[in-house]
Design brief:
The complex is a heterodimer of chains A (156) and B (610). With 156 residues, chain A is mostly beta strands. Helices cover 10% and strands 22% of the residues of chain A. In chain A, the strands form 3 sheets. Chain A has a 3-stranded antiparallel sheet. In chain A, strands 1-4 form a two-stranded antiparallel ribbon. Chain A has a two-stranded antiparallel sheet with strand order 2-3. In chain A, strand 5 and strand 6 form a beta hairpin. Chain A is elongated. Chain B is 36% helix and 15% strand. Chain B contains 16 helices and 20 strands. The model of chain B has no long low-confidence stretch (mean pLDDT 97). Chain B is globular, with a radius of gyration of 23 Å. In chain B, the strands form 6 sheets. In chain B, strands 1, 2, 5, 6, 7, 8 and 15 form a 7-stranded mixed sheet that branches. The chains are: A mainly beta (156), B alpha/beta (610). At the A-B interface, strand 5, strand 6, strand 7 and strand 8 of A face helix 1, helix 2, helix 3, helix 4 and helix 9 of B.
């Protein structure tokens, strides 16, 4: 398909429309349900599947090489900081995996740079970026190269 | 068309909110406290760009804190992999800063795996560290959201604007909102292009419904190249397309398999084959085959030769590694974190790599500047590292004043990947702030005339459709226009057959390339008659135009470099050998924005590292 929508579960909230990187999840104007309008430009990235609050979106592998009868389901839980996958093979075997998606509470770990002290005038003319050299975790400062080392031609 | 025009005046406009764009917005805020910083993004920055789906590894991390690698080592590695052809100043500069970006990612919550014995980040190979990166992009996007004054999602930027007060200076960008249809005009003192590279310029192996299953995201529509090219910026290394060896059909990554799980490949009969092609490859490329690690393209070359000799398919030997449950988990999670399709392919065909050695394949070619390849715009390097030919005042500024690049847009910086693209965005942003401060008195002028002319061009596909739609009934066949998908398929066919795609086993030559250019010219004439039924199709129409401009540039470069520099990525049948005497150089192009004529030149390769 590759992504498709279970019409009875979808309530037309539009989260998938908002997030799809390929702009292919749209709300059908007649049925007011989400629909993949361009399956051949779908990357199976699962962004819409993960975003759907109703678990109404799923993937069916590409018709040109993926036989029917499989499934790869996902549940992304921000509050728990995990993502869980269930892979069902065509013959019924299953594999389950859980991974962390973050180590910090959402929306709190990243500072607003505007609140940091203003860098002094010399910093603008140095080669250092913000948080450097501290964030490099080395004592020797930013690595530099001597300019006289330039060599043209084949190097070996 | 009765769409509104929305004006936005800003200091720094970031085009594209992928890893490069997010890095740019973040850094710009630190140095430009009072500046107005705006991101224009085609999708939604929470899940846009190549990292939308997630990543299971950060492929560029020095580990300077543990003495693992130094920036010089990165330069040697990238240079070796690209057979000598990188901008060493840019590569070194990115490498010396990249660790600070990765440390921030960890601080922001990105789960990075650690080696239980050493406490260091868990390495996949010498350069890659392993992460649980499903939410890598949302985490990085939050940093950009907290830094920018405004993020406009769903804006398809079609053109950069020209500053009419100054020749050869950027004045901003223009595009349309794919939801409302409104025209968005950004006047900016500096523009940082962090848009995507080019998937879908060559015919993909997947067909029909599956054509979206390309290795690189289908939304990477070559805007990184078309936007600067249309304004007259110089480009470099555009012939350096990349072909990936990946798991068949899903294009699942092989890096963790080779490097961490220690799997290896064999032909259909269970034989090791790479070493058999040693003499053959040596005859083409000389001593480059003896370098370690073997350049990626040369490993592809052996793969392609073995398959052509009738001993395919090539298999990845997973049965041994997957007996270890930890390795089995890593193998599957590697896909789930970044290429879910491969898990689907295996589930649907009952391929369990514990019991079956899965097939590999080589992909269609891609043009990009952030992965193991380095197509993109010709940019200034940093003051303290760059020779005079590579330095014109502001780090990462292109040959158009006030215009900067990051990620796929930047040429010459192979092996930057996600962390390197973010770092390049940071470098570009600091320089852009400095540029604006230095030119504080300059007024940027974008006339109504310029905007009005572009408005007509931008909406033309919708008007074409409106005029002619009644001449067809419920179908797609019109004598007056072609749809974006038609144009895309024609482009892919031209590039595949004439410029070295899968259909010709990556082979081309001068006559083929010249035919290709003629056909691309006619395609561009036909694109004046593209029909777009709605705003979504209008977006596709402009993505296609960007792809065609980039394709023309790729073809011009491939024609100019009379050499097979990277066997395994493409072959010039009329110049089958690597030719260091004449071609140990970087190739540069510029398209004249007025005439559409291309000028090609060579630029010296300077080695700053022994």
């Amino acid at each position: 398909m590759p992504t498709f929508v279970y019409m009875t579960r979808c309530d037309g909230c539009g989260h998938c429309v908002d997030i799809c990187p390929s702009d292919i999840m749209h709300i059908d104007p007649t049925y007011r349900r989400a629909v993949n309008i361009e399956p051949n430009m779908c990357w199976e990235c699962y962004s819409c599947v993960k975003a759907c609050p109703q678990n109404a979106i799923d993937c069916r592998g590409y018709a040109d090489f993926a036989p029917l009868g499989h499934s790869v389901r996902v549940r992304r839980e921000e509050e728990k900081g995990t993502i869980s996958w269930r892979i069902k093979f065509r013959d019924g075997r299953e594999k389950n995996f859980v991974s962390p998606i973050t180590t910090k509470p959402w929306g709190e770990a990243i500072p607003r740079l505007a609140d940091l002290p203003v860098p002094d005038g010399n910093a603008m003319n140095s080669q250092l970026l913000c948080h450097e050299p501290d964030a490099l975790n080395i004592n020797t400062g930013l690595p530099v190269m001597a300019k006289n080392k330039f060599k043209q031609g084949v190097y070996y | 068309m009765a769409y509104k025009t929305v004006f936005e005046d800003c200091d720094i406009l970031v085009v594209g909110g992928g890893m490069g764009g997010c890095g740019a917005a973040y850094e710009a805020r630190y140095w430009g406290r009072d500046m107005k910083i705006v991101i224009a993004e085609k999708a939604n920055i929470d899940r846009s760009g190549a990292v939308a789906q997630g990543l299971y590894a950060i492929n560029c991390y020095m580990g300077m804190q543990w003495g693992e690698n130094q920036p010089e080592d990165h330069v040697r590695y990238a240079r070796n992999d690209l057979m000598g052809m990188v901008r060493e100043d840019l590569a070194y500069d990115m490498a010396r800063h990249v660790d600070s970006a990765v440390h921030k990612f960890e601080e922001w919550g990105l789960p990075i795996m650690r080696d239980p014995k050493t406490g260091h980040y868990q390495r996949e190979g010498k350069w890659q560290i392993m992460i649980h990166g499903e939410s890598y992009k949302p985490i990085v996007a939050e940093a950009a959201r907290k830094s920018a004054d405004k993020i406009d999602n769903r804006i398809m930027v079609t053109h950069l604007l020209r500053d009419e007060n100054h020749p050869n200076r950027v004045g901003g960008a223009i595009g349309f909102n794919v939801r409302t249809g409104d025209l968005h005009v950004y006047k900016a003192k500096a523009v940082i292009v962090g848009a995507g590279g080019a998937s879908h310029i060559f015919k993909p192996r997947s067909v029909g419904e599956g054509m979206g299953r390309t290795w690189y995201a289908p939304w990477s529509s070559a805007s990184a190249y078309a936007l600067p090219i249309l304004l007259g910026a110089k480009m470099t290394q555009m012939e350096n397309r990349i072909v990936l060896a990946r798991f068949k059909d899903g294009y699942g990554p092989v890096g963790a398999y080779f490097l961490h799980l220690k799997t290896y490949t064999q032909n259909a009969y269970g034989d090791e084959y790479e070493s058999k092609w040693y003499e053959h490859t040596k005859a083409m490329v000389g001593e480059y085959i003896d370098h370690h690690p073997t350049p990626t393209c040369l490993r592809n070359h052996a793969f392609l030769q073995e398959v052509a000799a009738g001993r395919g398919p090539i298999h990845m030997v997973t049965k041994e590694a997957f007996q270890d449950p930890h390795k089995e988990t890593v193998g599957w999670e590697n896909f789930l974190g970044m290429t879910i399709s491969q898990a689907i392919v295996w589930a649907s065909q009952d391929i369990d790599p514990k019991y079956v050695n899965p097939e590999l394949t080589t992909s269609e070619p891609y043009v990009m500047g952030s992965h193991a390849t380095c197509s993109g715009a010709w940019a200034s390097g940093p003051e303290d590292l760059s020779p005079s030919e590579y330095y014109w005042g502001y780090n990462r500024m292109l040959t158009v004043e006030g215009l900067f690049g990051a990620g796929d847009a930047l040429g010459g910086t192979a092996h930057a990947f996600s962390s390197g693209s973010f770092t390049e965005g940071r470098l570009a942003a600091k320089a852009a702030v400095k540029y604006i401060q230095d030119h504080a008195k300059d007024k940027v002028k974008v006339s109504d005339r310029q905007i009005e002319d572009l408005r007509k061009v931008i909406y033309k596909p919708m008007e074409t459709y409106q005029i002619y739609r009644n001449e067809i009934v419920g179908g797609t066949v019109s004598p007056h226009y072609i749809l974006p998908l038609h144009g895309l398929q024609r482009l892919e066919k031209i590039m595949d057959e004439y410029v070295g795609g899968i259909g010709v086993n990556y082979m081309t030559n001068e006559p083929l390339l010249k035919f290709g250019l003629e056909k691309l010219k006619i395609l561009q004439e036909d694109l004046e008659h593209t029909g777009a039924e709605d705003l979504h199709q209008l977006q596709r129409a402009w993505e296609l135009k960007h792809r065609v401009i980039a394709s023309e540039c790729v073809t011009q470069h491939t024609l100019f470099r009379k050499e097979t520099r990277w066997p395994g990525y493409y072959y010039r049948g009329d110049h089958l050998k690597l030719d260091d005497e004449n071609w140990h150089v970087l190739t540069l192009s510029r398209r004249d924005p007025e005439s559409g004529q291309w000028e090609m030149e060579k630029a010296p390769v300077y080695h700053i590292v022994d």
